[in-house]
Amino acid sequence: MSIPAIELHAVEKRYATTHALKGVSFRVEQGEFFGLLGPNGAGKSTLINIMGGLAQASSGKVEVMGHDVVRDYRNSRKRIGIVPQELVYDPFFTVWEMLTIQSGYFGLGRENHAWLEELLDTLNLTEKRDENLQRLSGGMKRRVLIAQALVHRPPVVVLDEPTAGVDVELRRALWSFAHRLHKEGHTILLTTHYLEEAESMCDRIAVLNQGALVALNDQQELIAQYPHQIGVVDQILDGELPQLLSSAIISRSRNRTQIRMPRVLDADHPLLQQLSAVGIQLDQLQLRDPTLEEVFLDLTRSAVEEEKR
Amino acid sequence: MIGFGCWTLFKKEVWRFLKVFVQTVLAPAVSTLLYLLVFGVVFEEAVVVYEGHSYSSFLIPGLVMMTLAQNAFANSSSSILQSKMNGNIVFMLLAPLSSLEVYIAFLGAAILRGLITGGSVLLIASLLVDVEIYSVGLILLFALLASGVLGALGIIAGIWSEKYDHLSAFQNFIILPLTFLSGVFFSIQGLSPFWQQVSAWNPVFYLIDGFRYGFLGVSDVPYLQSVWVALLFLVMLTGISVAILRSGYKLRG
Question: Does the domain formed by A6-223 have CATH 3.30.1950.10?
Fold first, then answer.
């Protein structure tokens, strides 16, 4: 078995009043396009920060390409490139200066300039090469952040919500670039709020919620193993409804009601009886598999409810 | 192991202050020269601190040292705080740099800015008044020690501060009193015994006194004592700075 690109063992992170990560363990294999999903505050960025050495785990262990991020930080950091979520930049420098500085931090001098030029070209930054970072648009700054993360040709690339707040054109360009990196053999770890992006790009997906791993699988299996299916009724169900039915309703829109239903349904299942009580029979329900988004929302909602109990 | 990454961080820090040369070098040099013009003119005839040496000759080493120390402190502290506040400190933190390399790079840049600013004051002052030189070696040694001590203190202050208000408090309530009450404008021999005792606990006093010895060949305490005190502080502050950087305190969440 080859060395995993990223391996996490029981990673915990506690702040003074928050338990940000609660024993997270999983591994990302080399060459994977891996999605890390979760609502705001789930612990995704904390986990990424620990991988890059921007934060320290309270306990547990993280390895990048077999190198411990604490004990062997030099080797682990040389093998990972992180594109931070925030649009950060150094206002003193131009695009080219910043790239040569970042490259120098990794011990790379003039011999790396050809690769830096290639990055500028690939990310359409050549014209902005001598522009001060302060004067660039948000989209251009995002491209520079990507270039900075790649100056040392890391085998593992972490994209922390790279498309947050960018326009459609740039979003497409970024995804095409991520695809290209993946094809070239890079392992990609992506966090995003756009589930359709994760759905279309990722081989496997991990879902974090409130600091805990609530799901980890190939997305088709994630959907297949999900114990619910979606029942669609061509009418709006509202008013006084029985409690079980009321809590199973996911959405009501455009004369349609979507209901979360068990995959295995006996004729005497209480939900079917309650549907029948409001005039809906089984043959009026169109049953379908949930989308990744529906699985995600349900998983994260269930965990919140669990927490409240 | 000190590598190319450390050299790059040092170059970047030097590049940063040279890009705003007027603010980081020229302005402090001009402000200090105003002290020389005002105090030098007012007290030149009236005050003799050391027999056989004019007040200007006494004042210049103190002013050069004050500028050098304040700028070395400002360089490391403001660069770290600014990077933290802008968030761009992540670029350095994501790199495979050791705590010692980060310390050496920031300290080196602080020393260089201190030497350039102090050197500019000395150069311009030498055009206005006669500057006595007793030992170039001692002048350089104390210039290096002083910018090192204050640069290291700046690293600690930059890491500890979370906003400019914190840094300003550090500067105004610690650095400024330490430099002003260290014999820049007077000799501590002229103070009451109580204030002489207080000055004996001020590390900047030894830096200025030893530095002045390099110019005049006269000092309040033996210059070797000043060398040891400065070295002791430099080693102590180096230990604290590297330990803080290694712990990730206020840098790595």
Answer: no
- Identify which of A53, A77, A92 has the shortest CB distance to residue B19: A92
Assembly ipTM: 0.91
Q: Which range scores top for mean pLDDT: A46-55, A191-200, A285-294? A: A46-55
pLDDT for A89 beyond 80: yes
Residue B87: DSSP 8-state: S
B191-233 pLDDT per residue, tens: 888 888 888 899 999 999 999 999 999 998 999 999 999 999 9
Q: Where are the domains of chain A?
A: 6-223, 227-289
For chain A, the residues whose C-beta falls within 8 A of a C-beta of chain B are: 46, 49, 52-56, 73-75, 77-78, 82, 84, 86, 88-93, 97-98, 101-102, 104-109, 148
Contacts of B98 in chain A (CB under 8 A): 74
Relative to beta strand A204-209, strand A6-14 is unpaired
pLDDT in tens, A284-300: 889 888 888 888 887 78
- Contacts with A93 from chain B: Cβ below 8 Å: 15
Q: Give the whole-angstrom CA distance, residue A122 versus residue A116.
A: 10
Partner-chain residue, chosen from A92, A105, A108, that has the shortest CB–CB distance to B16:
A92
Contact A148 B91 (CB under 8 A): yes
The amino acid that residue B28 corresponds to is P
